[in-house]
Amino acid sequence: MSLGQELAPHLPFLRRYARALTGNQTHGDAYVRAALEAIVAAPGDFPRDVDARLGLYRTFQRIWASTNADDPADTVIDDGESESIAQARLAQVTPRSRQALLLTAMEGFTSEDAGYLIGLTASEVDTLVADALAEIERHTRAEVLIIEDEPIIAMDLETIVRDLGHGVTGVAVTRDEAVAQAMAQRPGLVLADIQLADDSSGIDAVKDILAEFSVPVIFITAFPERLLTGERPEPTFLITKPFQRSTVKAAIAQALFFDLQTVPA
């Protein structure tokens, strides 16, 4: 199997990580493209002492570090207003803390592997993750709409949201119900499943909501391939079921971190 074939299954998830790290699909994809170009230009430099996924993320991290993207002043966000807000929040969370949080909670790397990727020990990674979650939670607050037709999962998500200090505007189980609830009380964040109770689509529900107002969205689904297609737009935040509570917490923190409408705590 060629190196390209080994890396291909991991690219959608690297794009997810890059978008979450930058808060922007265009710039996240640009860093992924730069990493791939570096691999093509010097395939002999690709880490072969680790598995392909770890080597891919390691190459990405090297590109990210070489562009000084860890400096909050250089972080690329969508526009001037969001840039100033994101910079203020970034000042509260160190760059390595954000990376440690995303690599472990969202990408599923062990603390040891995350440490390999960013040059730290496992215990240092664990400390950074705890610090990042605590700091972001102190600086963001939102009302959350949950679109989920499985009662147990919906209850679990609601508990996670409230434990983080956020409110819940409601739980919707169909497309029409989700849109109606969003119009009645505009949420500051949406957690959405794809496949809903009446065979309607959470994707369509989110499209309807976004046609009316802007709001960050986190898709939580057992069918990530329906969204990680390489076409635009792709969701910045995507969690695969079954999920870990820490993964949901990390995604919520990161989504609100880059959102203009989030109320400072």
What would you say this structure looks like, in words?
This protein is of the alpha/beta class and 265 residues long. It has three domains: 1-85, RNA polymerase sigma factor, region 2, helix turn helix motif (Rna Polymerase Sigma Factor, Chain: A, Orthogonal Bundle); 92-139, Arc Repressor Mutant, subunit A, CATH 1.10.10; 140-257, Response regulator (Rossmann fold). Helix content is 54%, strand content 9%. It has twelve helices and five strands. The chain has helices at 3-7, 11-22, 25-41, 52-66, 80-90, 95-106, 111-118, 122-139, 151-163, 175-184, 202-210, 245-257, and strands spanning 143-147, 167-172, 189-192, 217-221, 237-240. It has a five-stranded parallel β-sheet with strand order 2-1-3-4-5, sandwiched between helices. β1, α9 and β2 (167-172) form a beta-alpha-beta unit. The protein is globular. Residues 69-91 and 260-264 have low confidence and may be disordered.
